[in-house]
Amino acid sequence: MIQLRPRTAAKYGAAFAAALVVLAGCSSGVSGLRSTSATGASAPAPSPDPLTWSTCGKDLECATIKVPEEYTDPEGAQIPLAVMRHRATDPAQRIGSLIFNPGGPGVAATETLRNLPKTAGTPGAFSPAVLARFDVIAMDPRGVGQSQAVRCLTDQQRADAAGTSFDPAVPGGKPLPRLLADAAAFTDGCAKHQSKKFLASLSTDNVARDIDRVRAALGEKKITYYGLSYGTVVGPMYATLFPHRVRQMVLDAPVDTNQWFGNSLPFQNDVAVASERTLNAWFKTCRAEGAAVCPFGAGDPEAAFDTLIDTLEAKPLKIAPAQEGATPGGELDGAMALETTRALAGDQNTWPLLTSALLAAQKGNGAPLHTLWNSVTVSPFPVPTAMFETHTAVRCADWQTPAGIAAHKAAATKAVAEAKRIGTRAAYSALNCARWPAPNKDRVTKPLTGAGAPPALVVAGRLDPVTPHHWAENMTRTLDSAVLLTREGVGHGSYGINSCVNKAADATLLRGTHPADGTVCKTDTPATTRPLVPARR
Questions:
Q1: Cβ atoms within 10 Å, residue 353
Q2: If we measure between CA atoms, which residue out of 232, 278, 287 comes closest to residue 256?
Q3: Are 318 and 331 in contact (CB under 8 A)?
Q4: Over the stretch 156-188, which tens digit does the pLDDT of each residue have?
Q5: C-alpha closest to that of 142 among 254, 34, 234, 23
Q6: Using CA atoms, how far apart are residues 496 and 509, in angstroms rounded to an integer?
């Protein structure tokens, strides 16, 4: 195993000590939380002005809306939010506005909408029928994207973090004192770059209120909603606070909202176990195909994988820069290979790519895995990217995270025991929220039942690497009225990639009709070596 790049104790000793003080005895804002009323506001905010649109791309219009930083003070400080609209392509048959949240938290909805023509066949890609009959509305949530994105680290700090070696055998990838020091530096940076009042306002209930301000500014009596991943927290929140403003709602790759707003440590453990299951599904498929079809590991891919990770940790592969600077050079170590594998194993359509990259690394060519490492989406575990800063800020505004370090140690031990490969990467991933400097004392804490809203369509993958299927079952039970649709197979998100799901989701969005509760959609048989083509709509 390679060692962490040395840092002297003087460089992080003070931060480590400060973190221990906070984790050992100070409040994280969990105790004494009070539930809000349905709107959480002592007085209604004035009606927003109609949006002023300007062209900002092919078939796209952009606007800015100002919303109260705190809805208990509607006349106080205001936050500008970025809004984008893709006009219905068949305006004569227009139904209304469809607002969507692509998840994260931290994914910019406006950027997602701008890239819509490039995303066909990927989760969340709207069908031509939906694009024809809805104005699709993207709102960057407060603290995300063009809506005053949260900043916690300097460019140099990000660069230092990206260059830090991790040990996949150590929970959290680093010794605990270093993890505590990193958490102290991160949270101190968050408080330095923006006000604590702003950080405390980033909760999902405020995002839902912001959506209703956008609805009012659009002149719509009701909205249609599609949410993916974290977007399935926003949707039920909106339906609970504003049930009579919902026309129809589709919730894809759902989060258990009771878990989301509860203790964050069991939540993170569920995510680690879900990722481990998808990796195990890749191993199982490789074994079943046999060495002639899946040559990695010659019939024992688990042993070959563990050996490869240990080998790369002991002696990382050197990677030369690609021609014309398309891909930076560097080295590929075991932690990077593990993280890349975690991401690619979570989507059965990328399994052939994963197999070829692992085979290449086994033969001494780390370039394919290194290139993939540079491009994979690494949420939900800590990584040195700008998205991680916004991702963390929203989580910490919502979560109940224990302040005591003992709880985090116990959770790390549990994660490693239940997810022996992925658990080490998930361990201690809630430390930032344990010492978050801006506790949200008035967030909504009641169950998100959506009582009074139309039935929601809840779509879940059988083997989802981020949101396990039992979360969808729990969401369906929590919502006052919901229908559960299951897609077989491995992957995060189903609408846009499965013809059966596409048909059901379009029927809900366009006509308000639902499949029978408990309907199951089949998917292609997974394979580790032959390329798979997403099902047609």
A1: 15
A2: 232
A3: yes
A4: 888 787 778 889 999 999 999 999 999 999 999
A5: 234
A6: 13
